[in-house]
Sequence to fold (324 residues):
Amino acid sequence: HLNQCAHPKMLLFSVTPLDVVKIRLQAQRNPFPKGKCFVYCNGLMDHICVCDNGNSKAWYKAPGRFSGTLDAFVQIVRSEGIKSLWSGLPPTLVMAVPATVIYFTSYDQLCASLRLRMGDHAQEAPLLAGALARVGAATVISPLELIRTKLQSQKQSYGELTYLIRSAVQTEGWRSLWRGLGPTLLRDVPFSAMYWYNYERGKRWLCERYRTREPTFTMTFVSGAVSGSIASIVTLPFDVVKTRRQVELGELQAKNLSSQVRSSTLSVMSRIVAQDGFSALFAGFLPRLIKVAPACAIMISCYELGKAFFRKQNQERRTFTSQT
Fold:
């Protein structure tokens, strides 16, 4: 029944521009950190300017700095062409199949098993099953997630990306391909736990309200959209940290800083707040929400539709076999 959800190619194609914009917003840094200097040239003379207040809304706007979601869309299309909005689509399509199959299969099996074992606490089974299923799926596809993030963070060829990955592997070993796995798990595991728990409760509440045993397509769609929206907002800071960690691949090696810069999730989070302010932890809020809400709704609706269809087919087959 997972084949219904294992090939969401049209969905991925439609939401990839939002992913690109979200990552660009998250990867950009404050060009005016407090106490730093920058050189401004007006065509006649050079000026050395000191940033006193660290305010990103200074009198000079650094090139490539996006002020919001719409501004990012416009600037990316103007400077790099409309094709750049679909950067990283190939690795996204490649990792969609194993990620979806591992995730949904693991969740289904774990949830059924945990409900039998948890007794009176069976209602909490989706929370634990969702978290455990996400750990496996996120770990398997982490290298592909890294490649996608690098491609979407700035315009670059596959040749340049291959060189960066080779340099990172030579310098830091194969573990560098799992760069950003920590914040990815801190983002995805709570997201998955909250999503499945709220989804199952929301679906059950809607069934009770409309007095039906089986949820309709609309019920699963609404439950998926709402639970996905809540989970995406709560886990957004870890998504920002994950993006920063993965974008750093190659940059630290080029500056010989790979062994000097602390890159734990907490230290990166502290550095983001110190340089760009607390609001930087919620960069890309709008494109992430616009992407995640419908994606969760469509995926879970297809999943439930597929389950219901094949359950009916199996029941009919068993009935036919018993009659013959």
The longest strand covers residues 37-41. Residues 1-7, 54-59 have pLDDT under 50 and may be disordered. The two ends are 26 Å apart (CA to CA).
